[in-house]
Give the backbone structure.
Amino acid sequence: MTLAAGILVGGLALAGCATERDPIPTPSSDAPVDPVEQPRVTPGVVPEFVEGGTAAENLDYFAFRLDALLAQNASPSSRELVDELVSSGFNRAAMEVTADTTPTGMQADSILVAVRVGEDCLLGQVADGAAVADDAAALSTGRCLVGRTLSLDW
């Protein structure tokens, strides 16, 4: 009984400490902000490719080119994504792209495309007629994407 009483007293003491904590802060705005819905560039301003620039310097241009392709074709193939980026100035040898079809022949839900720029990567995902783009450090493997990617020897 003494052990059970000690556990009960200890549990109550800890429970008392928990009530003294500050409440978890809540956001001050009632309207959530969706970063995907935020414009990447100033309307009416066309971003330019920065030759020899960093991933961060070319992020807006990368996103712009993905959006431009999707405006013409809401469901581009992996090859069309790569060809668009190559024709826009990005280095094919620095690219990775996932397959646009599953192993069973179905259309993939999304396609990932990446361009290695120095120690960083431009990362894009295309799905349902929309694109999301970001930049991040390259993986320790030197690659940008995890998993199987397509050969770009076409």
Observations:
- Strands lie at 95-97, 111-117, 120-127, 130-137.
- The helical segments are 2-19, 55-72, 78-87.
- Residues 74 and 129 are 4 Å apart (CA to CA).
